[in-house]
Amino acid sequence: MSELFRSPFDRHSTASQVIEGVDLSGKRAVITGATSGIGVETARALALAGAEVTLAVRRPDAGEQVAADLRAKTGNPAIHVARLDVADLGSVTAFCAAWAGPLHILLNNAGIMMLPELERGIGGHEQQFATNYLGHFALALGLHRALTEAGGARMVTVASSGHLFSPVVFDDLDYRFRPYDALGAYGQSKTAEVLLA
Fold first, then answer.
1. Which of 3, 108, 184, 195 has a CA that sits 20 to 30 A from residue 162's CA?
2. How far apart are CA 66 and CA 41, in angstroms?
């Protein structure tokens, strides 16, 4: 492995270990899907490092509960909640239009997995691909100016080893000509996320 890609961290590393010694005071971050799991843990780590954190979530009521808990546990009052459903382009557009000022960190974390039956989302695309990839792609485009304004901004897209289950099948992204496969559709969305990163 090239020295360029070496890291002291691996799949066992915690968010606290990764952020240790990093000062994010004055930096602004957006995390999608920040009401559970990786999203909450990432928000906690960023807040402890001094960042202003916006939890971009489908259910603002759940987001407010998480934000209150994070404010209490981190001592950082700059934790906000905004409605964002990456499966809905109208919601993505509204979120981007409402954002003001620079954005230093964009964490594309929200996602869905293994829908048992074929569903369609954004633009008629298969729902996992639409939600996990297209919604975040639209978000990144919509926030491009804010990311540029920050100077040296970072975008992180949470993928998984699920990308090993399927490449992006450009000839049939939406399962119009082949039988729907929940794991394959999930894998395809994760491969697209890896390519977005």
1. 3
2. 11
Phi, psi of 29 (to 5 degrees): -130, 145
Q: What is the pLDDT of residue 181?
A: 96
Closest CA to 45 of 8, 17, 80, 16: 16
Given 133, 175, 180, 186, the catalytic residue: 186
Element (H, E) at 157: strand 154-157
Residue 175 among the catalytic residues:
no
How far is it, in rounded angstroms, from Cα 176 to Cα 107? Answer: 31
- The region, left, alpha or beta by phi > 0 then psi within -120 to 50, assigned to residue 46 is alpha
Query: Do the Cβ atoms of 78 and 70 come closer than 8 Å?
Result: no
Q: What is the pLDDT of residue 1?
A: 45
Q: Where are the alpha helices (DSSP H) in the chain?
A: 15-19, 37-48, 60-74, 89-98, 127-129, 135-142, 144-150, 182-196
Which run of H or of E encompasses 156?
strand 154-157
CA–CA separation, 173 vs 109, rounded Å? 21
The pTM score is 0.92
- The tens digit of pLDDT for each residue in 103-155 reads 999 999 999 999 999 999 999 999 999 999 999 999 999 999 999 999 999 99
